[in-house]
Specification:
This protein is an alpha+beta fold. It has 14 helices and 17 strands. α9 crosses α10 and α10 crosses α12.
């Protein structure tokens, strides 16, 4: 038995009817009567999609199969097409089947005429699979965003050289309040121009599918500050186009630590070199001094006694060389591990540090030295020298560029009861901002210009002083200069008769 024929436009012949009825997509033809739309034709594919018979669909008002929440939109598009006389653009909407199922469909249209009236041919394609895929993609994207937004590492997606996604960690690392501030921004905007060629070359290789390891770049923050980033990139698809998923982290602290390890190794090598050089100088210097003493004695009883003062000056210069060499040896000597340090003469250590820093101090300041007779302090001599030298050089840095007549550095050593010795080093430099005073002893914090300091000097000083049971404090206000006070407990002698 032949299947029922669809209600058909009388103007169409049987061959065309058969062709439309056999089409694999739904077809519906409506005519605009001015006050209403009238369905003239529907094929079997359209009726089967909805679960109705052909005659049932033919008798339905054209808008009835459209999902209730879509009718206003579809009706608006139909009215606009009628007013403009143009076929509507392809439309994705939803129809409702006999059993209540919601069916995603794509409608495409063609305009024609029927007996002088405007008519529309609608081609109905079931896109359930496509909608399911789209829903799965949306769900996948939602899960990705949920995970990425909570990730501690920076996660970004870039397509066509611009950010299309950034998580909160990425925004925070680059100094932005919200991730949306990064969306649409060129990736090149966060990297210095001298690093762009390398970055673009690696991006091109990653987009080509090459697996690359992490690479370090200098990142530019929103405020212009810089950081060191380590970024790994992999090709992904984003909204149907190739993109790069980047996972990065701020490794500035790690980089600083690595540089400090390298610098510590260099300093250790310099210390060994200084010790070697000092020993090499000491031997001939001793020979020179012995012979100068002999010359001085012999000159006193000779006709050349007028040269005595010149020899005295040479001897004085050689003695100063020997003192500097001794200071270098003390500074380079590593502390003995696991041993309680012997009490040291604080004034002698301060004078040694003043000699070592003499050149840096003299070019920017007058140095005032005030010392009192103080008891010895149980601390490693080289480490105390390192602390005092560091503070002296910081004072010189604060006065950098000053005329020596206007710069002033005061060094005072006093006894600070109960049972402590205080070393106070003051300068009349610009001082430290009040907001920074509490941070100067934090590792890697520095107020010096980029490249002038690591921010570890005072942190190391605090570690050394506190390990000896002492304290170090900084008192400063902008415009009034800075004073660093180092307090160390004195060596306590055992009480007589103890244990009796």
């Amino acid at each position: 038995m032949a299947p029922p024929r669809s209600p058909l436009l009388p103007a169409l012949g049987d061959p065309l009817v058969d062709l439309l009825d056999a089409a694999g997509v739904g077809i519906s033809i409506t005519v605009d009567r001015g006050d209403r739309l009238e369905r003239l034709y529907v094929n079997r594919a359209a009726a089967d999609l909805l679960g109705y018979g052909v005659d049932e669909v033919a008798d339905m008002p054209p808008m009835l199969p459209v999902a209730a929440d879509e009718r206003d939109r579809v009706a608006f598009i139909a009215r606009r097409a009628r007013d403009t006389g143009a076929a509507p653009a392809p439309l994705t909407t939803a129809l409702v089947a006999r059993d209540g199922r919601r069916i995603p469909v794509e409608l495409t249209f063609a305009r024609t005429e029927y007996r002088g009236l405007p008519a529309t041919i609608a081609f109905i394609r079931d896109v359930t699979d496509r909608a399911a895929i789209a829903a799965a993609l949306r769900e996948s994207e939602h899960r990705f965003r949920s995970l990425a937004d909570e990730a501690p590492d920076s996660i970004t997606v870039a397509a066509d050289g611009r950010f299309v996604y950034a998580n909160r960690a990425a925004a925070a690392a680059l100094g932005y309040d919200e991730p949306d501030e990064l969306i649409g921004k060129p990736v090149a905007a966060i990297v210095p121009s001298d690093e762009l060629p390398r970055m673009r070359e690696r991006m091109a290789r990653a987009l080509a599918g090459e697996r690359l390891g992490p690479s370090e770049y200098t990142g530019i923050r929103k405020d212009g500050g810089r950081m060191t980033m380590e970024i790994s990139s992999v090709r992904v698809a984003w909204d149907g186009r190739p993109a790069l998923l980047g996972v990065g982290r701020d490794v500035s602290d790690r980089r600083r630590r690595q540089e400090e390890i390298i610098r510590a190794s260099q300093l250790a090598a310099v210390g060994q070199l200084a010790a070697g050089v000092a020993h090499e100088i000491n031997n001939p210097l001793t020979f020179v001094l012995l012979n100068l003493e002999r010359i001085r004695r012999e000159l006193a009883a000779s006709p050349l006694s007028h040269l005595q003062q010149h020899v005295e000056d040479v001897i004085d210069g050689a003695e100063r060389i020997r003192a500097v060499v001794g200071d270098l040896l003390s500074f380079a000597r590593a502390p003995a591990a696991g041993r309680t340090p012997a009490p040291v003469d604080v004034v002698a250590v301060v004078d040694s540090a003043l000699r070592l820093a003499g050149h840096a101090l003299r070019r920017c300041a007058r140095v005032e030295r005030t010392v009192a007779a103080v008891p010895p302090v149980p601390i490693d001599r080289a480490r105390l020298g390192q602390v005092v030298l560091n503070v002296l050089l910081n004072a010189a840095d604060a006065l950098d560029g000053r005329d020596p007549d206007s710069g002033h550095i005061a060094v005072r050593v006093t006894e600070a009861p109960p049972g402590a010795v205080e070393i106070a080093i003051s300068d009349n430099g610009p001082g430290v901002a009040e907001s920074d005073v509490d941070r100067v002893f934090e590792p890697f914090f520095t107020t010096k210009p980029a490249g002038r300091g690591t921010g570890l000097g005072l942190a190391i000083c605090r570690t050394i002083v506190e390990a000896a049971g002492g304290s170090i404090a900084l008192d400063s206000h902008p415009g009034t200069g800075t004073t660093v006070r180092i307090r160390l407990p004195t060596a306590r002698e055992p009480k007589s008769g103890a244990g009796r």
